[in-house]
Amino acid sequence: MYSLSKKASREMATIVPIRTTQHVGGPLIDAVADDHQEMYDYYAQYEKNAGNADLQERWSNQFRWEVARHAVGEELVIYPLMEKHLGARGKELADKDRSDHHQVKELLYKLESLTVGTNEHASVLKSVVELLKPHNDSEEQNDLPLLQDAIANKKFAPTRSHPSAPDKPPFETLAGLMAAPLDMLKDSFAKFPTEEEKKAVVKD
User: Fold this and answer.
1) Is the CB of residue 46 less than 8 Å from the CB of residue 21?
2) Residue 10: alpha-carbon gap to chain centroid
């Protein structure tokens, strides 16, 4: 049963959408930043639907799925590229990013045992976003510009991690993994927003 406090409900009534940080741009950074923005948009929908536990559950699942899918792409593709092309500095940055992911995963695991619509569920999900924002900002402003500069002479052409995937290495791997339907993982989530609900999300 929904039990969010009146104070929390008033705070959610004035939601300020989170936006990705200012960054230098480029195919690699833009692809990752687009994924980051989707996380924020899904979380905004979760907040917007305070009082409707069913919709909050759908948007919470969509958010968790997006974070999980994106993390797999980064851990399997981007972080190894950082270690390969940036040497010791790349390993240092990748290890820090993996540590950030581990903290997020622990909170998402905790979220699975909580009831949507409760103060605790809202608090833990907010903590996930508060961990992700500086992590994502650091990737967009620091890590990825370094990587992008290091491999700028390679041929690649991604515009987003999905739905269109580039066809030149190494980024067809990046796009494919970040957009891959990890069916077993996704099947563990019971409900998601409908396609119509997702299309209705307005990105300012």
Assistant:
1) no
2) 26
Structure tokens at 165: 């995937």
Rg (CA), the chain: 17
pLDDT digits (tens, 9 = 90+) for 37-61: 999 999 999 999 999 999 999 999 9
Token look-up 């905790």 returns 110
Task: Note the pLDDT of residue 15.
Answer: 63
Low-confidence residues in the chain, pLDDT < 50: 1-13, 155-185
Backbone φ and ψ for 106, nearest 5 degrees, come out as -65, -40
| Residue with the two structure tokens 């409707």 | 52
Q: Which of 63, 59, 146, 135 is nearest to 98 (CA)?
A: 135
Structure tokens at 98: 């993996």
Residue 186, φ and ψ in degrees, nearest 5: -65, -35
Give me the amino acid identity at 89. Answer: R
The whole-number pLDDT of residue 151 equals: 84
pTM metric for this prediction: 0.71
Closest CA to 18 of 94, 119, 132: 132
Please give the full DSSP string across 104-170, using - where no structure is assigned: HHHHHHHHTTS-TTSHHHHHHHHHHHHHHHHHHHHIIIIIHHHHHHHTTTS----S-SSSS---STT
Residue 27's Cβ-count burial label (10 Å; 0-12, 13-18, 19+) is middle
Peptide bond into 170 cis (omega under 30): yes
